[in-house]
Design a protein that fits this description.
Catalyzes the hydrolysis of glycosphingolipids and participates in their degradation in the lysosome. This protein is α/β, with parallel strands linked by helices. It contains 13 helices and 17 strands. The two termini are about 40 Å apart.
Length: about 400
């Protein structure tokens, strides 16, 4: 079983693009050819990712979510793509994505049907793993709908992990395992990390501040059980689910978040060492959203090789102070203002709060990363910082 962890993948949180939150289960290509789940959609996203800096910023996976399949398996029992929407087949799509210097992700389910009612992988784990490998797939998001009992759910996740390893192909394994366990029992994260590269903990992320806030609140509430298990090879996905699903989806560039709320999502996903999977339309995205999502300093924090997940260290009324240990004895620090009305407010804290008093001992430099990049200078161990933060906004610092 330990072989599942030894696939050598996801040494830092995976990054890419996922179709679900933005495009859902649109299958009518006759009336909506630009937004239906089809090979055209993924080829166009791959083209944009290669041409407009997304790949170079680190977003390397183009991920298919639910609704790509034909309603039935083929005569040999193998999964098959819908022939009208994917006339060239997944192998050709993977080849095209690879030709752009990117990787292809795909979706299946541990149960007998996917969440949208397409064929699931129950009793087909080995065959489906071999099929995905033969197509050149690089990542599998494995959902947990229609799995029956918790025992069958756990058995399915273990079996698919081992089946992927047996193919000999490097395939990142994204699980929804703990999300489906939590209503009934506390997940065993040590076991889950033994089989999965990242795992979804919470409900689907939606294009709304309420959704983002609920994910942050849940993460802070459960940080004692989830932060310690994260690290190279295995990551907590606030919603990898991106959140209808798989990866921690970044909904920046859609319709429901203000600018400050978009900054908060980007900053806090970096603090949480979350997989960065965008779910937006990269063909039509504002220059401001593009600059935020491609911000090299924020991505460097998310991808820090030390691989430590951040955590909340204090909460004072509407303000939250989070930190994340980084390589080179540095720390990422986020000051989040949860208040939703009024104007900017100041939060003052002592640098002795950070790193158990060691982050700024005897002195440290402070640089603001978000919402704008600028140096704050050098401070001593006993200094205090005063940070002005907009409502529902976050100031991200590197100390």
């Amino acid at each position: 079983a330990a072989l599942a962890l030894d696939n050598g993948l996801a040494r830092t949180p995976p990054m890419g693009w996922l179709h679900w939150e933005r495009f859902l289960c649109r299958t009518d290509c006759a009336t909506d050819p630009h937004r239906c789940v089809s090979e055209r959609l993924f080829m166009e996203m791959a083209e944009v990712m290669a041409a407009e800096g997304w790949r170079d910023a680190g977003y390397e996976y183009v991920c298919i979510d639910d609704c790509w399949m034909a309603p039935r398996r083929d005569e040999h029992g193998r999964l098959q793509a819908d022939p009208k929407r994917f006339p060239s087949g997944i192998r050709k799509l993977a080849d095209y994505v690879h030709s752009k210097g990117l990787k292809l992700g795909i979706y299946s389910d541990v149960g007998n049907k996917t969440c949208a009612g397409f064929p699931g992988s129950y009793n087909y784990y080995d065959l489906d793993a071999q099929t995905f490998a033969s197509w050149g797939v690089d990542l599998l998001k494995f959902d947990g709908c229609n799995s029956g009992t918790l025992e069958l759910l756990a058995e399915g996740y273990r079996r698919m992990s081992l089946a992927l390893n047996k193919t000999g192909r490097s395939i990142v394994y994204s699980c929804e395992w703990p999300f489906y366990l939590r209503p009934v029992q506390q997940p065993n994260y040590t076991e889950i990390k033994q089989y999965c590269n990242h795992w979804r903990n919470f409900f689907d992320v939606y294009d709304s501040w309420r959704s983002i806030k609920s994910i942050l609140d849940w993460t802070a509430l459960h940080q004692d059980s989830i932060v310690k298990i994260a690290g190279p090879g295995g990551w907590n996905d606030p919603d990898m689910a991106s959140i209808f699903v798989f990866l921690s989806q970044l909904v920046i560039g859609n319709f429901g978040l203000s600018w400050d709320q978009s900054v908060t999502q980007m900053a806090m996903w970096a603090i949480m060492a979350a997989p960065l999977f965008m779910s937006n339309d990269l063909r039509h995205i504002s220059p401001e959203a593009k600059r935020l999502l491609q911000n090299k300093e924020v991505i460097a924090i998310n991808q820090d090789p030390l691989g430590k997940q951040g955590y909340q260290i204090t909460k004072d009324k509407n303000f939250e102070l989070w930190e994340r240990p980084l390589s080179g004895r540095a720390y990422a620090v986020a000051v989040l203002n949860q208040q939703e009305i009024g104007g900017p407010q100041n939060f003052t804290f002592s640098l002795t709060f950070l790193g158990n008093g060691l982050a700024c001992n005897p002195a440290c430099s402070v640089r603001q990363v978000l919402p704008a990049s600028r140096d704050w200078g050098v401070y001593t161990w006993v200094s205090s910082l005063s940070v002005e933060v907009n409502p529902t906004g976050t100031v991200l610092l590197k100390v």
